[in-house]
Amino acid sequence: MKKVTSALLMLFYFNLALFAGEVSLRLIPLFRGCSYYWSGEAVGAVTPYFRPLNCARWSAGIPPVHDRDRKEYRGSIVHLEEDCAYEFELRDAKGMVLPGSRGTFRTWKSTVPVARTIVLDETNFDGHLEITAKGRPDGWIRYTAKPGFILTNPRQAANKEKTVAHDNSDAMINLRNAEYILIDNLTVRGGMSHVIHVENSSHIRIANCDIAGWGRVGVQRFDRNGRFFPVGVPVPKNYYGINFDAAIHLKNSANVVIERNYIHDPLSRANSWLYAHPAGPEAVAVQMVRNTVLRYNDFIGSDEHRFNDAVEGWGNFHPQGGFNTDAEIYGNFMIFCNDDNIELDGGQQNVRCFRNRFEGALCGVSIQGCMTGPSYLYENLTSEMGDERGATQLILKTASRRSGKYAASYVFNNTFSGKGRGTDVLEHHRMVLYNNIFDGAGNRIAHAGRPTAETANNLLPGGPSPRFLDASRGRYEPAPDSPARGGGKVIPNFTGPGPVDVGAFQSASPRPLPERPLPVRLDCEKIRFKVDETQAKVVATVAGSNFSGRYRIAKNSDFDWFTVTPDSGTLKSGDQVTFTIQTRPERFRERPLMHGAFLIRFEDGLSRPVSVYAETGWEMPLKPHKPGDVAIYLNPETADKGKKFPRVNPAHGPEEDGCVEFPARGKPEKSGSPYLLEFEFDVPEEGYYGLFVRADVPSPAGAHDSFFYGFDDQPMIPGSFAEARSGRKRWYMVAQSGPQETRSACHFTRGRHKLRISPRESTRIGLIAVTDNHYAFELKE
Q1: How many Å separate Cα 48 from the centre of its chain?
Q2: In whole angstroms, how large is the CA radius of gyration of the chain?
């Protein structure tokens, strides 16, 4: 009977294939995984199977996405070995191989055959290089530099503040219609919109480069939207602001590998969300690419030079946007951004993001706008989140109004720890979340009950504590008594057979994150100095039997507030070396917490990163303006007109860092009302000025964070305290309620002006300031 049933099923599939047209299988391998696309129809569940060539045992993967519009099944198999041949097939629920679903493939290898090497030096590089050459699969063309030669661009230095347009052609190295090119071991200081631009090219590798000092600088325009704008040239009214200045920019290209690069210290910085959507520099930007790999890179911003995103994509809601299709992002360290660590937004078709380490951003990985799918996020560590103000949002970002019809993201075995808001399951984006740690009071899975959510074996706030080995030292492995140990779910192809730990680390196969093929392990991967602590130690232990590598300590120029010794040397198998980190408090900036990082970086570009934080003990003064600033302080107790509101603490008025109570009134007060405060003040110079208020916002902050205000003869409008937080007195920018882009400064002529304020929501306010230096009043945490 079984033989008859199988024969009938095969006949059914044959007839179905004839009716639907030819079935086809596409296999797209990269280094560590392979995407598959099978165009056909099947009855019931479909499961992928694979095995190394000539191996007896098959392994199963998780089911593919079924795109009924395309009549296509697509998905990924993962955890493959490099440069290895595999067999693949799809089976139905009865174990039958689907017609046309068998194939073989070989994963990529790390080395490429080089036929010709071009060495750049002062004789053949004048600040700009056009590459249109085409190598061959068996003979790549390699571009490298003479030892000690630093690539610079004098034209960029002369025009960095003036260029309005985002111009791909002004990149320092421009690859167009190029093939089989290796860019290797360059040190670059400069570049306009980009350092390396790759367009309409294929089979390109950019490896082991040290890139800094690129981008357009401009000036922060508070009269526009708080973004940075060019100076010295006319700027169109609809100009967005300087953005998309990427050290490496990929456009309409395929089979590109970016690996082992240290990208840091852009000339410019991104604005924060306090004003508008961040805009500014990125380490990497991608636009309609295919078969892309980012691995083993260090993308490190700083508070003085924050990235917008470390990796940004074009076309967040375009089916071919971002990484588009078939990508691997793994083993990377991305830190200090004002928006996301990385955007996967766009196609997300077999885009795999795994074994990375993310820190210091508003959001971690963005998977909003999954327009095709599926995407995969597994075994990533995200911790110590916060933009330049310390603000956080969704650690796993899903804040989109639309997704593709078959959008799906698989989120397995990640650790999300610290400040943040976890993630949010949307009605139009299927999310499968297994074995994740969401650690921190706000890190929840919102709307986990929606039909688009499938959750299992996650550790969540309100449940058992995950109990890390030592989170204060960056060791997020589960402690021996952690409930994460053995608490996970077996996921075919993604986990071992068990026991499976919850989170990014498996006690059965320990490895540091970001994953690097480097036998060097650190006992501490994050340092946090308390006030008055000045020294810390990190011990590096080298495993293996024949490793030997020269290293140097690499860190951003902004991180001059600490030193690391020894700063260079050789590490060999069996060595145990202690590094001493010493702070230099005299170089601390005026902020409560310093943010930094350093790399133990080897000659091949592989590294072990350590993030460094230092509490300074600094507190923002009551009047934080700097010498030379215009700052006009107004006291609600001494207004020219209006009542005297009761003090929160009778002994402390606004001049003593106290506050007065504003009642809830709901509507703007009319002239003559005792609830209408009126101030007259003199502006010394014509210009643009911001309005700030020092407030102690009650909880919940969203119900106590506004009043009505109006300047001169303008109507009274709601002004929100951006961005309000309860629990402490601090300065807030008063922003016009409405779209974020309207948070602009007010223009004043020189002379006498009037400010009117009246209660809206119940709140507590202290001093009010009119100033030309927004940045001095922004809270830094």
Answers
A1: 32
A2: 28
> How far is residue 214's CA from residue 249's CA, in Å, rounded to a whole number?
12
Instruction: Return the SS3 of 623.
Output: coil
The three state secondary structure string of 650-667 is CCECHHHCCCEEECCCCC
Q: How far is CA 570 from CA 523, 524, 575, 600, 729, in A?
A: 18, 20, 10, 11, 50
pLDDT at 163: 61
34-88 pLDDT, tens digit per residue, is: 999 999 887 789 999 999 999 999 999 999 999 999 999 999 999 999 999 999 9
* Residue 583 token pair: 């702070």
Which residues touch 243 (CB under 8 Å, ≥6 apart)?
166, 227, 279, 280, 308
The upper half-sphere exposure of residue 492, i.e. CA atoms within 13 Å in the direction of its Cβ, equals 13
DSSP for 521-545, please give it.
EES-SEEEEPTT--EEEEEEEE-SS
Give φ, ψ of 215 to 5 degrees: 105, 165
Helices (H) and strands (E) in the chain, counts: 3, 64
Residue identified by tokens 């390109």 is: 204
With the CA atoms of 513, 518, 521 and 522 taken in that order, what torsion angle do they form, in degrees rounded to the nearest 10? -70
Report pTM. Answer: 0.94
Q: Supply the DSSP symbol for 168.
A: G
By the 8 A CB rule, do 483 and 500 touch? no
The CA distance from 182 to 765, in Å, is 60
Longest dimension (CA), the chain: 97
CA distances from 331 to 171, 256, 381, 553 (A): 27, 16, 11, 19
Q: For residue 288, give the 3-state DSSP assignment.
A: coil
When pLDDT is cut at 50, 70 and 90, the band that residue 260 belongs to is very high
Other residues' Cβ atoms within 10 Å of the Cβ of residue 124? 10
> What would the pLDDT profile of 363-381 be if each residue is shown by its tens digit?
999 999 999 999 999 999 9
CA distance 482 to 501: 10
**CA 520, CA 600: separation in Å to the nearest integer?**
10
**Cβ neighbours of 580 (radius 10 Å):** 12
Residues 6+ apart with CB under 8 A from 650: none
Beta carbons of 634 and 681 less than 8 angstroms apart: yes
Q: Is 637 exposed, middle or buried (0-12, 13-18, 19+ CB in 10 A)?
A: middle
Residue 75, number of CB atoms within 10 A of its CB: 27
User: Measuring CA to CA, how many Å separate 19 from each of 40, 89, 97?
Assistant: 10, 22, 19
Nearest residue to 327 via CA among 357, 349, 297: 349
User: Per-residue b/e over 528-556, b at no fewer than 16 CB within 10 Å?
Assistant: bbeeeeeebebebebeeeebebebebbbb
Geometric angle at alpha carbon 492, from 490 and 498, rounded to 5°: 35
